[in-house]
Amino acid sequence: MKLYDLELSGNCYKVRLFASLAGIPLDIEAVDFLDGEHKRPPLIELNLWGEIPILVDGKVVLRDSQAILVYLATRYEKEAWLPRDPAQMAEVVQWLSTAANEVQNGPNAARLVDKFGYAIDKADTLHRSAHILPLIDTHLSRHHWLALDRPTIAECAVFPYVALAPEGGVSLEPYPHIRQWINRIKELPDFLPMPGV
To answer: Same domain for 69 and 135?
Structure first.
């Protein structure tokens, strides 16, 4: 099973982090992002979106980190990370949506501006961050983990770009419960760091 990967990508890191925590072996293939390798064959043929990560498992080819997390948890029967019970699964999946929407367009987008020079409206990213981070912090003031009474793929989906928020000029100082949650994740067995985290 191969993951086409960029070390500084939070979306790629989501997959690497989960694989490490769950003991899932991955063959990591670094992509020369700056040279546009992801926009040329053979990678563009694997993912017409021209984005990474890309997971290849035999005939299965997946783009999108949230979809890859679901696939790996299901493929390797890691039910503790993604339960089959409909209500519990929905609890996890709603956080995958939060990662792909509010976190992606808030803290992640702010980081893209500051760290990589993307032409994105920085004020809008800060506004979105100021909306979602207090909600997450309040939730974590009442819950040890995002979805259930244990870490799930929800943690792997949300953690990277929240933990990397300071790289986009978004302080985590006002959010003590988020900071405690970040520390809990870092203390998990087989936690895998990335630059900036």
So the answer is: no
